[in-house]
Automatic annotation (TrEMBL):
Gene3D superfamilies (UniProt xref): SGNH hydrolase
Domain called Sialate O-acetylesterase: residue spans: 86-313
Keywords, ordered alphabetically: Hydrolase
Pfam family, one: SASA
GO MF assignments: hydrolase activity
Name assigned to this protein: Sialate O-acetylesterase domain-containing protein
Length: 342
């Protein structure tokens, strides 16, 4: 798939210089007329002030243009490497992961608690695969058949940043769809393919997939056979995701049910709480307050859940990418040379 693993994290290939430099040069040459005009304007302004300053010529302007080119190219490389620092989390499952906090009679009340407020360091991958500032509801263009409200994602990301500011930018990838059965998430199905496709798209601009947040199972409490096969199906799903993302140790945090759509809630919960996989952690949502429908978590409960997920995430797994450009000191010799020849 063209991706590499680094410290157990799913990572896009490093940006090639033959892609970065032409883009920077394109911007540089496109802005040359404006830059030259500005330099002429400043020079004439100095002349009007009766200050001695040489008339701009190709000889005197060339070093300045070199400086401009150097800064433009360095800026382009720095921006690319900044993108590479995103810590990306996949959000999958059904309605309680998509978020129904504050939704009554299929209408969201619009209330966003402080813990779920927008943060410049938190982005979301939209349905059309573009990064944008993350705001509630995170799943508004993914789980669009029903009204979405507050989910655990924003509270999770804000809490993660509060606990460890060095994490940098957090990228959330919404993939959850309400009312879905575990069998609908099987490899080869639409939901599974969409999850993998969005995970791959998320790292194209740089960044690493650091974990999967999973909250699903309410639909599997309706049928006894589904409840009894739940653990086997879920383990197979986790194995397939890790295999297809080339991440055998991808951290997964699942949520044990707080409610269900049928009578086999305890059977599914037993399956969830009884799973033992490498880098799998389970947080228990039982006891959190529910909306009047007795199925979905309230806004306050979603905030609590998000903070529980952040607390459960293994800190030692975070592997931020430090770009070579960010660790290289400015080329002071280059600037000194230009200063003297100007």
């Amino acid at each position: 798939m063209g991706q590499k693993r680094c410290g157990g994290a799913y990572m896009a290939p490093p940006q090639r210089c033959d892609n970065i430099i032409p883009n920077a040069l394109r911007v540089f040459f496109k802005s040359l007329p404006t830059s030259f005009s500005l330099a002429m304007h400043v020079t004439h302004g100095l002349k009007d002030a009766n200050l001695r300053y040489p008339t701009p010529t190709s000889t005197t302007m060339l070093p300045s243009l070199f400086v401009y080119a150097y800064l433009s190219i360095s800026s382009a490389i720095t921006l690319v490497n900044a993108d590479a620092g995103k810590a990306i989390f996949l959000l999958a499952g059904q309605s309680n992961m998509a978020g129904r906090g504050g939704v009554v009679n299929d209408k969201w009340d619009g209330y966003v608690p402080p813990q779920s407020s927008p943060n410049p360091a938190i982005l979301r991958l939209s349905a059309d695969l573009n990064w944008q500032p993350a705001t509630e509801p995170l799943h508004r263009d993914i789980d669009y058949f029903r009204a979405c409200g507050v989910g655990p994602g924003m509270a999770f990301a804000n809490s993660l940043i509060r606990q460890d500011s060095s994490i940098g930018t957090v990228g959330l990838v919404p993939c959850a769809v309400g009312g879905t059965n575990i069998s609908e998430w099987a490899r080869g199905g639409q939901l599974y393919n969409q999850l993998i496709r969005r995970a791959e798209a998320a790292v194209e601009g740089g960044g690493t997939v650091q974990g999967l947040l999973w909250y699903q199972g309410e639909s599997d409490t309706v049928n006894r056979e589904d409840a009894e096969l739940y653990q086997r199906r879920l383990e197979r799903f986790f194995d397939h995701v890790r295999h297809d993302l080339v991440l055998p140790a991808l951290p997964i945090i699942q949520v044990a049910l707080a409610s269900g759509a049928g009578p086999y809630i305890e059977r599914v919960r037993e399956a969830q709480l009884g799973m033992w996989l490498v880098n799998l952690r389970t947080v228990d949502a039982m006891g959190l307050r529910l909306e009047p429908d007795r199925l979905h978590l309230t806004t306050t409960s979603q905030v609590t859940l998000g903070e529980m997920l952040a607390q459960a995430f293994p800190r030692d797994h975070l592997s931020p990418i430090i770009s070579q450009a960010s660790r290289t000191p400015p080329n002071y010799i280059f600037f000194c040379y230009l200063f003297f020849i100007i």
